[in-house]
Amino acid sequence: MPFLFESEASYRLEANTNHSVYTWPLLTRFEQLATGHLSLGERNPWSDYNDLRYVRLEAFFLEMQGFFSGELDLTGRHRSRFLFLLRVWKQFYAEFNKIEPHVEAQLQHYIDDAGQPRSRTIYLIYRRPLWKDFESKWLVPENGYVFVKVRVAAIFELISKANSMVKFQRHHLIHLPMELLELIVKNASIEDAQIISSTCKRLRTISQRHIFIIRSIAS
């Protein structure tokens, strides 16, 4: 894939060392998905990197969807983030679209375990080298054509419902009234208050007062 998620190196490290590297809160879709896979236990989820491929690509699709649904993650729906994703999305779709004319959908009939006749759609890709190049470049999971096709269709459906209007985030934590900010910090643990304090000057001023009170009580 032409880009890496910022936290990917940490999750790769955890997969190889079994040492926990992620912390709450989970800021991105990638962190949420990767943490879910790693929490399954029993086996190394990155054993053949197929799960890692799924997580990376699914996170990318979910981030694109989030800018049109208005539901993303704690990193925020900011213009700069969207413009970066959009460039990657256009390249991804353009290359996937070149494969579509060489794919044929066929209805396959079969008998299930209960002896009942069933049918399903299978896809035959006639230009396998073209697909393999795409699969390798974008780290698509093995046999992932249907996965990509369904996700791409879902994104276009969402874009259509949103009339192509991107839902950028307009309000931030610091835009809240002072009283609400003080209430948030007051109900935070000292660790969370320290994190809030490190973000900007305004929140540092509010947080430091409550951190001092908590430490005074504790001592």
Automatic annotation (TrEMBL):
Domain (F-box): residue spans on this chain: 170-217
Pfam families per UniProt: F-box (PF00646)
Protein name: F-box domain-containing protein
